[in-house]
Amino acid sequence: MKPLDRILATARATPRHIILPEGNDPRVAEAARRLTAEGLARVTLMDGPDLPGVTAMAPAEAPDLAELADHWHRMRATKGMSAEQALAEMRDPIRQAAMRVRLGQADGTVGGAVATTADTVRAALQIIGRAPDAGIVSSFFLMLSCGPSAPIKGGMIFADCGLVIDPTAAELAAIAQSAAQSCRQLLAETPRVALLSFSTAGSADHPSLSRIREALALIRTFEPDLEVDGELQFDAALDEAIRAKKAPGSRLSGQPNVFIFPDLASGNIGYKIAQRLGGLTAIGPILQGLSRPANDLSRGASVEDIVAACAVTAVQSA
Known about the structure:
alpha/beta, Rossmann fold
């Protein structure tokens, strides 16, 4: 079964409650209709049209708006937020959706078709918050290589390609651990993690490489059974024959399914090259490390992209 088909089947088996806060966008409304019609999720659509089986909500007129604002005020009062400001911010669909997820009224939320990544991620970070066992909130793209002419078949996790600009060694280790868990959850595979760089197994020396080597040591301390290696150039990571020559002592037993980029610049460039030139399907950015699922969309997202992101969000909440 193809990775996306497996994710859709998992979402359909136990439909989760997903809030879509941007219902005034036709793509989002159509995605809500499709998610409901295909049994992929129970959907609340904010500021959108009335659709069969979809719960409609006007966030600025919600009967529990004052209660939500009170929660938000108590969370932010020590930072100088007034009750009036909290009420005004809870009228915002992105923030209100995040608060409803935080309070357990929904299993997850997906936004960003209209709002900026900064707005959607800020709401998730401030309102939903980081999971207690996560070192950092980061992001990944689920990369699907399923075309008939694809040289490699299957799914891969690319991280971090959308959020953490210049991670420290500890942050890089946390990103890798979260990405490994995302691999288990979404691909149902044992993670094989490659820490990417311009050097393979000490073939070069630079301060940036010491950060990757330190991250590797931390990961192996925290998760000694995790199959992980680095630093590796992409060709050595992907191709076992090249890896055998360049890094004969590598602990990777096969082709990696999790690729960790050293910084946001390389990650963002890398996934877009794979998408635009390699023909891979990119789903994301998907957030990882939150206490409850909330995910972002590209403002150019198609209906199919929104449906896929919602299905991933549903699986994350399982």
